[in-house]
Structures are given as structure tokens and as C-alpha cells.
Amino acid sequence: MKRVIRGLAPAFAVAATGAAVLAGAPAANAAPAHSAAVLDVKSATWGQLHAGDCEQDNGTIVLRSDGTGDWSATTLTFQTHTGDVWHSSFDFKTMAGTPLFSAGTFDSPRMDDGNPPPRYFWTKHFTYDASLFGAVNIFKTIQHSSC
């Protein structure tokens, strides 16, 4: 004889959904993926910089509110026989200039000269404490470079 207890199935469904949410697994009635939170982004770009016989063009730093960031640049060297490397690191500050955190040192690929010199596009991904995103004044970011 099969016994059916009315009202228990919905309770199990609610409990299963709650457990899935608590466990971080998707639940059957979870919100669609397209309604995920939109990330805020801050970015700054440096035009042309020189260090030694090297050049950096359009270096761009991007911070996202989820605690991820990316650095990208195009670099080249005008004179080398051993392969130059561009090094960049960054200090992030508040509006008042108070230091928050640093990122890097990020290194370019080994570069060789030529006529004209080859251009090396490169990127580096990094993470930082996402709770600091709101305090960052991206335009006070200091890039330290050498080659």
C-alpha cells in the first residue's frame, strides 16, 4: 500500500532549494544568468613613456569591482643585443592621495630591436581586495617603470 502525505512535497522542494542556495549550487528557481550583477570598471591609460632605450605605448590599467584587474601595453626597444624587458608596477591611491595597495611588477616579453623595432603587445591579469574598489581614484595611480 502506497502512502501519500500531502503537503510534504512542497516542504521538501523548499528545503532542497534552500540547501542548494546555501551550498552555492544552482537551484531550480535561481535567477537567470543574464540578471547577474554588473561589474563597475575603472581604467587609466598612459600615452607614450620612455625608460632607457625602451618605449611603452598606450599602457592601460583596468580595475573591476569584483577584485580583478588587467594591465596591457605595447612596448619596444630601440637598441639591444641581449633582449630588453619592460617592468611596470602600480600604486593605487584614494582621492586624498592615501596609498591603498600595489600591483605588479609585470614584465614584458624579451624584446629585440630592429629597423623598425618590433612592437610587443602584452597583458597581465591580477587580483586585489575588492573592498578597496570604491576608494580607488584611478587617476592618482602611479606607474613605476624601468627597462
> Would you identify the regions where 5 or more consecutive residues have pLDDT less than 50?
1-33
Structural class of the helices, strands and pairings?
Answer: mainly beta
Strand order of the largest sheet: 1-2-3-6
Treating each run of at least 4 consecutive H or I residues as one helix, how many helices?
Answer: 1
Largest sheet entry: 4 strands, antiparallel
State the order of secondary-structure elements, H for helix, E for strand. Answer: HEEEEEEE
Overall 3D shape: elongated
Q: What's the alpha carbon Rg, rounded to whole Å?
A: 25 Å
Average per-residue pLDDT, rounded, comes to 80
Multimeric state: single chain
From the N-terminal CA to the C-terminal CA, the straight-line distance is 82 Å
The percent of residues in helical segments reads 10-25%
Q: Can you count the beta strands?
A: 7
Q: Beta-strand percentage? A: 35-45%
